[in-house]
């Protein structure tokens, strides 16, 4: 019986590096996934901002205004400088590589970007 316990303890002593490696790799993997999630979120937000700006420019030139858009009219004392600004919104949900990270930080798992353009007068 004692020889069995000794063999087991000797086998455990040979695996010291595996336990230390596991204790380092698990937090390192979580840190890596958090970094990748931040990179993906930033790139998706930047891409959505470019798309929202393009949509705003296209709609401002064509004069198309959707229900989700905002139209801001800036009046001036000069009758020829009536300016209308079109603001579009775009919202996209983000992928979650680390489950519960966004909820833990108190954020939302979506990006909300705006695009703005000055509307052309059709006169």
Secondary-structure topology with pairs:
Elements: H1 2-14, H2 16-62, E1 70-74, E2 83-93, H3 101-105, E3 110-118
Can you walk through the features of this model?
The protein has a 3-stranded antiparallel beta sheet. The N and C termini lie far apart (99 Å). It has helices at 2-14, 16-62, 101-105; strands spanning 70-74, 83-93, 110-118. It has one domain (2-118). The chain is α+β, with helices and mostly antiparallel strands.
Strand order across the largest sheet: 1-2-3
Q: What is the distance, rounded to the nearest whole angstrom, between the alpha carbons of the first and last residues?
A: 99 Å
Protein structure class: alpha+beta
What oligomeric state best describes the polypeptide chains here?
single chain
Major sheet characteristics: 3 strands, antiparallel
The chain-level mean pLDDT equals: 85
What Rg is obtained from the alpha carbons, in whole angstroms? 28 Å
Number of domains: 1
Order of helices and strands: HHEEHE
Shape label: rod-shaped
Number of strands: 3
Helix content: 40-55%
Low-confidence stretches: none
Number of helices: 3
| Proportion of residues in β-strands | 15-25%
Transmembrane segments: 21-41
Keywords: Membrane, Transmembrane, Transmembrane helix
């Amino acid at each position: 019986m004692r020889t069995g316990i000794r063999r087991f303890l000797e086998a455990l002593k040979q695996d010291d590096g595996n336990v230390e490696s596991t204790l380092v790799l698990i937090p390192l993997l979580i840190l890596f996934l958090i970094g990748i999630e931040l990179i993906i979120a930033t790139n998706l937000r930047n891409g959505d901002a470019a798309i929202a700006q393009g949509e705003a420019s296209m709609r401002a030139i064509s004069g198309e205004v959707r229900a989700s858009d905002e139209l801001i009219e800036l009046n001036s004392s000069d009758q020829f400088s009536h300016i209308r600004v079109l603001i579009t919104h775009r919202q996209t949900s983000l992928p979650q590589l680390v489950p519960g990270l966004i909820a833990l930080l108190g954020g939302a798992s979506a990006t909300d970007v705006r695009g703005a353009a000055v509307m052309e007068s059709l006169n």
